[in-house]
Amino acid sequence: MSFGLWEDLKGVVAMVDAEKIASKQKQISISEFFEKNKHFLGFDTLQRAVITAVKEAVDNSLDACEEARILPTIKVEINKLKGDKLELICQDNGPGIPRDSVEHVFGKFLLGSRFHAIRQTRGQQGIGITGVVMYSQLTTGSKTHVISKIKSDNSAVHVDLGLDTRKNKATKSNEIRDVWFEDGEEVVNGLKIKTVMKAKYQRGRQSVHQYLRMTSIVNPHATIQLTVRDGDGEIIDHGHWIRTTEKLPRVVEEIKPHPHGIHLGQLQRMLKEADERKLTSFLRHNFSGVSMRAAKEILSRAELDESRTPVRIKANEAQALLDSFQEVKLLAPPTDCLSPIEEILIKKGLSKAIDSRFASTVTRKPTVSQGNPFQIEVGLVFGGDLAADGPIEVLRFANRVPLMYQQGGCLMTKALESVNWKQYGLEHPGGKGLPKGPAAVLIHLASTNVQFTSEAKEAVSDNVEVHEEIRRAMLEVGRGLKNHLKKSKQKKKAQEKFDLINIILPEISRKSSEMLGREEPDLSPVITRIMNAVFLEDEVSWDNDAKQNICSVTIYNYTARARAYTILAKWPEGEGVSMAENPRGGRKETNGLWAWRLDTLNPGESAEIRFAVEGLTKGDWNETDIFFRGNGDIIGANKIDEKLLDEMRKVEALVVAEAEHSRDEDIGSLERVLDRVEIIESLDTSKEESDSETIPAETEGASVESGDWGSLAMEDDAE
Amino acid sequence: MSANGYTKEQVIEALHDIAGEMHNKMLKGDPPTMTLPVRTKQNISFDSKLGVYKYGKKRSTRDATSLGSARQLLRALHVTEFIEEMIEAGKSSTLREMYYISEGWGHGKFGSQNESNNLAEDLEIITKCMREDFKLRPEEDGARIIGNITFEERNRRGEWMRINCRDDVGDSGYGVPYNVEFEKLRLVDHDVDFIMAIETGGMFDRLVENGFDESSRCALVHLKGQPARSTRRIIKRMNEEWNLPVLVFLDGDPWSYRIYASIAYGAIKTAHISEYLATPSAVYLGIRAGDIESYDLPADDLSSKDIQALNAELSDPRFADAEWQEEIKLMLELGKKAEQQSLAKYGLDFVTDTYLPEKLAEILGR
Description:
The structure holds 2 protein chains of 2 kinds.
Chain A: H1 2-18, H2 30-41, H3 46-67, E1 73-81, E2 85-92, H4 102-107, H5 129-140, E3 144-149, E4 156-164, E5 169-178, E6 181-182, E7 185-186, E8 190-198, H6 208-218, E9 223-229, E10 235-241, H7 264-272, H8 279-286, H9 292-301, H10 315-327, H11 343-353, E11 358-363, E12 367-369, E13 372-382, E14 393-398, E15 401-403, H12 411-417, E16 439-447, H13 464-516, H14 524-531, E17 534-543, E18 548-557, E19 566-570, E20 578-581, E21 587-590, E22 593-597, E23 606-614, E24 626-629, E25 634-635, E26 638-639, H15 642-662, H16 667-687, H17 697-700
Helix pairs in contact in A: 3-5, 6-11, 7-10, 8-9, 12-13, 15-16
Chain B: H1 8-27, E1 33-37, E2 44-47, E3 52-55, E4 59-63, H2 67-89, E5 93-94, H3 95-101, H4 113-127, E6 136-137, E7 144-146, E8 149-154, E9 160-164, E10 174-175, E11 185-190, E12 194-198, H5 201-209, H6 212-215, E13 218-222, H7 229-241, E14 246-249, H8 254-264, H9 274-277, E15 283-286, H10 289-294, E16 300-301, H11 304-314, H12 322-334, E17 336-337, H13 350-364
Parallel strand pairs in B: 5-6, 12-13, 12-14, 14-15
Antiparallel strand pairs in B: 1-4, 2-3, 7-10, 7-13, 8-9, 8-11, 16-17
Helix pairs in contact in B: 1-2, 3-4, 11-12
């Protein structure tokens, strides 16, 4: 509902823009509008104004670089001036803005109010850079200096921009063309903004520093630098986040709106501006998910003639049309319009900003709520430098834009708090509020239409589907954490036993024999008595020379009987990631799971499995899970759950089939695939935890869709 | 020769038996072990022959199936080796020095000084030797004594030095050395009627300043809180060799009860050598729980820890007799405790002019 208000506002401004306020209609002063609405434009306090200004500039830079396929390098400089004033300088290496477009980009409110085509962009969330120009002008009377250089021009354009608030247009002054040098080097392409505004720089959880830190986490492909100086030119705050990947985010597709996600005002505008002559073609051309058959059904339910001209549809008829949208079964909108960060990049992003021991990340499949495609990603980091006392840090993002205010009222926080973290190894007093411990949780909502609680756009509003998706993602990373903690504990225990038999016991034997002048006893029966178990040690390390991950698994039989096992190891199989060396051979069990059948291990014997994986970079893969088939327990590995494994294989086969079919253009076969997908989905949901809080976490892990291998373990883990 | 009369060879042999137990187990294919008495109040009992509390029959076995226990076994071997070296070289070291020396013992090194102290005690208990036999000195501070008694102490040059604890010492009194066994200290002569052991320095100094040692013909021993072994040992020797009564003057709180018990009956931690340390005839003079009321002393409320300690004492075999049970229950009932120095409420001389004489009359009948 609140989003609707914002849309309407956009509409007002768009109209102001379109009809040029100089017309006979009541003139709306843009500055008055700004003044009235500065609380939700993000300029309501001096502390917040500078954050908003940086946000607008940086979001623009990131969007521009993404579109131009440039790896962004962004510099932000803030210099304190006298009397609560700051100088803000933002510079990027983006494509720049063509000379003729500069005043257009900087001088118009709410650029790109896209209500016909929707897609996931950062800029969707702000007032735009124009707000910065205006704020600067209103508070200090200064112009904003812009330098822009596009690659194809010989020189850069340098210009001072102001706003004609009556005409909603930029005013240019001192425009020159000149070569642009930065640090003695000519800039080939880029954009630099320098502005003076009334603002206060502050540190802490709500600061420019935190905003950029968070931005760098979800934009691992960006290098961002911050320098803040006080009045004497002394550096008082700085940050430098260097890119951890060269991989740019995928280009997002624009999609047409889906009938389930539209409201009346929008529909009326679309009807008004339609070129189509008939309603059927209007529906099919302007919406996603509407087939000819569906269009006809919608119109018959709305009791509208197919041949009516869209422009002539009256308000009450539009309402009828809107109502019938909800009654007709429609294809879901496409989800390739979303740009998730992806698990491995979230890991990299987090590692760039936070030093931790363990990271678990999940990218859920895209899904749809009220006609809007959305996708949830979650990352959890644990240990390392993170503070152990106090609540965990929550990092919220909507379409890669950090949300810094109103944490408590945000759907993301509520979904996080709804999980019983105690069973995943975090302190969670009373099961309420934020859990405590050395952890940070990242939540990213990617959507073509993020719904906020207010125009301030700092908290995502309640939505059952989004809440459930976030919760499930939390359960997945929670299981990852639980698994990690259990593993660390087991590892520590096993390490102690190894120290005991390999170091301490031989020393006791040597010393006591020496002291008594007796012969040393044979220790192997003693060792068997002490250990009385099969132990397994695994380690994933990075070979910097070969640029490979080496996984080494050693199994020791410290029992009195011979043992035979098949060992299964999880590995990050995927596009571009392959086994480089695997001398023991074995076979692929299913996607991401390899199996080796070992020869019989006699008492006291050990065996090693070693394989190398290439296609990853350092830090991508640090920990693995090992499973086994065979009798008796192994300390350090879990018995594989064959039933779950079978189901995973089935699902995998279906996914392959789906992929093959979707390559066909034949609609008939596509529908068959859709049927299959539905079957898969129903299989998923039947496997999915329904009330997971009440059943043990291991069974709740029965989800097969996410590759959550931890859940492959049988309940009775070796301890 | 030491208090228990063991020779060097006997000490080393006793220590080797510990290594022997480990070696024998390993020969049989079992994890090495170390067997020792359980050191809790549940495993001390009254030895009527000795008149003190000793460890009972409960034994615990430390076996090398966990890393912690295995480390303890290895440490015991390192310590044994270290003691042997010292015995051979005629040296001694403090427990603290041993703790630092263990830095070089690899996996056998101690994690804290407490660990090394405890292990030294373990070895004493198993071998029935005393740590003096092991050439290990405590860090702990010995007591000071003032009164007309005369000792002979062998100094660093090996000469016997005669010291009268009234005439040859300053205000701080005679400092008790860590070793008060026969080879180090001789009890020569005395002209006192009893020994009074005092918990706090403040009270000790008050009695000295008021000339209580002379006026009441006694030797004053400052315990410095929980008394060190050498303090308990010297009290015991004066009691036995000179046949002097021992009166113990402490604060009136649950911790003072424990101090008294360690002097009179033996401490739980050192129950293996109670017969060398405890003075069964020592009398608890005060502050009694009843004194708080009868002398109307300024008192503090018992803390929850105090109450816990008192309740634990109720089930401690050393406090099993009716008089002690009554005393402890009275303190619980009053919910109060009082310091020795609360007697100053009635002036600086009250303790020497009124309180102590009244108590002495009660106890000694004078």
